[in-house]
Amino acid sequence: MTPLNVSAYTATNAAGEGKAALLQALEERRSGLRPFSDPGGLSACAGEIAGLDTPIATDPVNFDCRNHRLAERALDQDGFRGAVTDAIGRYGAGRIAVLAATSTSGIRETEDAYRHRAADGSLPAAFRFDTMHNMQALGAFVRLSLGLRGPCYTLSTACSSSAKAFASGARLIAAGIVDAAVVCGVDTLCRNTLYGFNSLELVSASPCRPCDRDRDGISIGEGAGFALLERGEPASGIRLIGYGESSDAFHMSSPHPEGRGAIGAMKAALKRAELDAPSVDYINLHGTASVVNDKIEDMAVMTVFGGSVPCSSTKGWTGHTLGAAGVTEAVIACLSLENGLIPGCLNTTAVDPAFKSRVVLENERRPVRRVMSNSLGFGGNNCSLIFGCPS
Amino acid sequence: MTIRVEGIGVWGPGMTDWSSCQTVLNGAGLPEEAKCGDPPAATLSPQERRRSIATARLAVEVAGQACAAAGRQDARDYATVFSSSGGDLATLGNICETLARDPRLLSPTRFHNSVHNAPGGYWGIASGCERASTSLSAGPASFAAGLLEAATQCAVEEAPVMLVAYDLPGPAPLADVCGIAIGFAVALALTPAGANDAPALSLHFETTPVAETVMQDAVLEALRLGNPAARCLPLLSALAAGDIRDVVMDGGGDDRLVVTVARPE
Description:
Chain A is α/β, with parallel strands linked by helices. Chain A is 34% helix and 22% strand. In chain A, the strands form three sheets. In chain A, strands 1, 2, 5, 6, 7, 9, 10, 11, 12, 14, 16 and 17 form a twelve-stranded mixed β-sheet that branches. Chain B has ten helices and eight strands. In chain B, strand 7 (245-250) and strand 8 form a beta hairpin. Chain B is globular. The chains are: A alpha/beta, B alpha+beta.
């Protein structure tokens, strides 16, 4: 593929709000995960974002919900809005797409609405499904908030959602439909995912420990991330250089036992980037800290890369931000490139002895030129991205 | 950007395949009281069918039809794009009911069925297709967005793509707020614009609010407005008639997707 500039990017999650705070948390190995208990009785650790109590400024009557409050807060970081305004100046608002991504959108509002039904069973009058909870509520909100007029839709493929938004954005640019794309992912805590993952016995009581010998499940985190993709001078800045997508075609909530889907996504990304495996300097794993998923991903990485490329999961910092995981970890990949930092798994004390890939537990400082980021989701939906910077 | 339509699948009120849909669109019309039934979705194994949800059966039914109609390709050759405004509202309603009372005992199957890409997952398991699969929503404009995503993928990756659009009404009280009146699903088996005799679609994105193409028949227009997937009806009408014509679809804001349907060469 023709590499695309990632001309602006930002993320907000429990580990940090904006690039500088997130980088500092990575460098200082400070987790955003804290004990969390739901009034319904579930206790876990979660990456909750404090202070999302103020209604949004953009159309608060129709669009206000926790998911959009987080989206708005993330949009205000790192000069992202200014970068989009500049891009509107270059291309026009109709030539910039919005590819949003979320797994549960504003479901929390619907959950609350169900708890406050009238005697006749109807939902509260202030509740708006289309602009608070429909998956496209997020896309429509971002388009409105940024003043964009290009194509806009919301991808929702569970935990791979916002990685796939990069692939869709790259294709809309390649097809000449647009000149740039705002790619984003936002997910917030809700009872559905807390109790749902808990029903699958996938939630850890302690902060998640990706790749650990004693790992016992995920920690859910809130997160939002944004990136601006556009064509550019080939040698400038951080670029999206490859993407690969695949399906397991195996099971709704368990990965293929040989990791076929993950292998397919990683190989497809390498092929699009025209790279051989040893050219990748760091792999940011999906690494949820679930017993089975980490094991299968290790097998898949080993099959594609062998045991020499350093890899780690950063979910010990952020928790699993679900539909926002792809863009959250894409932003971490970009920070890795910009700062020559390979973050070793956080909370992990001993790597599972059965693992064969090169899982790193300590931060390493060294030049990093190409980073792969994996996102592997429910429904057997996989996406790998490769970011690079000129040497 | 030009792609070709090699196969079409349809399920909806009074329509159980592309042939019956063509009859409706070419003048027979639709009785006002026509209902959308639960399709056979024969591609699903009996076990997967039991676990599945209504939207998955709808999606698998039309995808299977379009695949068979396209003839020359295995289901595993198609990347897939699943487009739905609301997803499986019956599952959502059930989960919200469960979470509104104590104890909050969610069923694991119900939870995995709640993801927007559940129908895509069921199709993958049923067809064995390991290619890229995307699920998306653009609210009322979901069909146009799905077509844009699928056509872009088809043209850029130079590979066949199956577009599947579906929506079903929700249970009370979601039914009152989700804007979906009746069930409908459509699938288009798309291939790159090489030399073959399938009808061609040329897509053009327009940023000014030109008039949307509507259905002249009142019952069909009510269906078009009553289900985001049924916004495809003007496009299907053009394909059924075999005319060269432009179909304009609302993109969600002032934007429009203009699709020029060309006669088979």
